[in-house]
C-alpha cells in the first residue's frame, strides 16, 4: 500500500496519544528520567529554547518517531541576564526536565555571547572565558542527571548567533583557548557527562579548521568530536548520503591520525536535506530516502556515536526558503515522508548491530546487514536513485520474509519467483524472490540465513536520476 494512503491512520495514531500527554504533563515533569541505553544516538534538533512549537505535543511526536535524543541550547545571555547572577529561565528548565522525564537524552549546547563580556562577542578575554566557565558549571550542576551530553558552542567558525558588529569568523586558536578552560571545569562539576567539541560547519572541516583545533590540543580537552555535515547544495551525486558518508569516513580517519591510530568518538549534531522548492531543495520523498540511507550507513563505523537530523519541526510555511523546510514535520506537526521513515529505522539504527555489507553484482546497489533481538535485517537500495530489480535466493524457502519499503506498510512475502514478463515459458523458482529498489531502501527481516543476491536487473523509469534543483 502506498504510504500516502495510510497517512491519516498514522497521523491519527500519533495524535491519539497527545491528549494523554497534555493531561499528564504536570506529573511527567516530576518523574525521574528513564534514559534507555542506545548503542547509537538517533537524534533531532529542536528549538524549544526559542519558544518553538507546543512542548508536550512535540515531545509526543518525537517519541512516536522513535527519536531517542534532542539537541537544543541554554544560551549564556539568558542564564546570566544580570551580571554575576546565574539563574535558569523557567522555559529552559521546563523543556529540559520534561524531555528527560519522557526518556529523551538531551544534548545541550553551551553557546553564544553575553552582553556583560567582550561586548557580546565570542568569549576571548580572561574575564569572558572565566564568565563562560562559571555559566557552564552552573548549567551542568543545575540539570544534573537530566542532561548527559554537552556541546561547546555552535559553529564557532562562522558568525552565527552574534551581534552584527561581531560578524567575523572564529579562529581555531580562540576556540581551543575556551575549550582548554571550560572542559576541566565541566568535568569537575560532573565527571560522567560527555563533552563534545567542534560543532563546526562542513565548510570549516573541508578548509582544515577542525584539523587545526585537533593540532592545538582539542582531543585532550573533550570526550568526543562533533561536526555538521550538510551537502544538500552540492550537485548530484556529491549531495547524496553515500558521498556524505564517504567524506565523514575521511574525517574519522584524520582524527585517528592524531590519536595514535585509535578511534575518536564522533558525532554529527546537524545534518539534513531541506525540502524547499528552490535551488538546493530536495523532493520530500527523496529527502526521506536520504535520511534512511545516511543513518544506516552511519552504523557501519564503531566510532560514529550519533546523528541529529536538523531539524524536527519546520520553522515556517515559505516553500522557497530553506530554513523553513528542514523538518521531519510541518509547523503544525503534520508528518512529512521523512517522519515515517525515521519511525521505521530508529530502533534498528539505535539498538541494532551492524553485521556487514551485502555482496551484489551491481556496484550501485547498496546492501547492509544488521541484527537486533535475534532477528536478521537486510537493507537494500540504489545509490544513484534509479530503480533496479533484485532477485534473491534462499536456502530456506519454507520461511517467509517480512518486506518493508521504508515509510510504508510491511508485508509477509512467501518465496517463489517466475520471470514471466521477460520469459513467458519460464518455470517458477520456489527458492527465489524479486523486489524492486530505488532511492528508498527496502528492509527485509526474519530468519535470513542462507539468503543471497543472485541477479540485479536495471528497471530505470527515467533517463537520468531525479532532477536536483
Placed side by side, the strands forming the largest sheet appear as 1-2-3-4-5-6-7-8
CATH top-level class of the largest domain: Alpha Beta
CATH architecture of the largest domain: Alpha-Beta Barrel
CATH superfamily of the largest domain: Glycosidases
Q: How far is the first residue's CA from the last residue's CA?
A: 29 Å
The number of helical runs is: 12
Number of strands: 17
- Overall shape: elongated
The total domain count is 2
Structural class given helices, strands, pairing?
Answer: alpha/beta
Oligomer: single chain
The H/E string reads HHEHEHHEHEHEHHEHEHEHEEEEEEEEE
Helix content: 25-40%
Name the beta content range: 15-25%
Rg from alpha-carbon coordinates: 23 Å
Largest sheet: 8 strands, parallel, barrel
Question: What is the average of the pLDDT values?
Answer: 91
CATH fold field value of the largest domain: TIM Barrel
Uncertain segments: 1-32
